[in-house]
Design goal:
Elements (H helix, E strand, L loop, with lengths): L9 H15 L9 H11 L4 H4 E3 L3 H10 L3 E4 L2 H6 L2 H5 L5 E2 L5 H10 L3 H9 L6 E5 L3 H12 L7 E4 L7 H9 L6 E4 L6 H13 L4
Parallel strand pairs: 2-3, 2-4, 4-5, 5-6
Antiparallel strand pairs: 1-6
Helix pairs in contact: 1-2, 2-11, 7-8, 8-9, 9-10
Length: about 210
Amino acid sequence: MIEYVVPSEIEKRSFEIIEAELKARNIILPQDEKPVTMRVIHASADFDYAAAMRYSPDAVASARALLLEGADIVTDTNMAKAGISKKTLERFGGQVHCFMADEDVAEEAKQRNITRAAVSMERASKLGKPVIFAIGNAPTALISLYEMMEQGIFTPRFVIGVPVGFVNVEASKELFLNSGKVPYIISAGRKGGSSIAAAICNALLYGLGA
């Protein structure tokens, strides 16, 4: 049956449906992680994320503390960048960056025979302020961050690792799941994507109460 809902109530109604379906599946989400996981389900209509989401200890509180400090967000796609609430982020002094489409990044990647994602992460490491990395597409971005960390060049303050696909996707996530050095929110397995990365960022931002 068609359910008639006014536009301003659609998101609220969607979350009511998600809540009801989680209850019907006997799924109880940790209270601090619940708003993030539910927004991921809202973005994907995929309840598998209820089991797939991985959070380091106090991950949500850690990410929100960084945002309150004015941290920037760096994404690996302009699609993720477009989906993040920039007005909310700007209230706390943060900006969203994506270097992937920059011509000089593409040229450097070609000259060095590495991916644009790797060059983009190097570029982001030099922003000179706290950064939350939101990776939804390129596992090489996660690999590059991990390699810089292992080499003592740069340690990310927080990683949202939700690349989607088949090649190196699971392995790149495991690097951070097993490192114990960087707080993270990660989707285990092959699922993820730019919309998931943006949804996680927005859930963190909307929880700041500004």
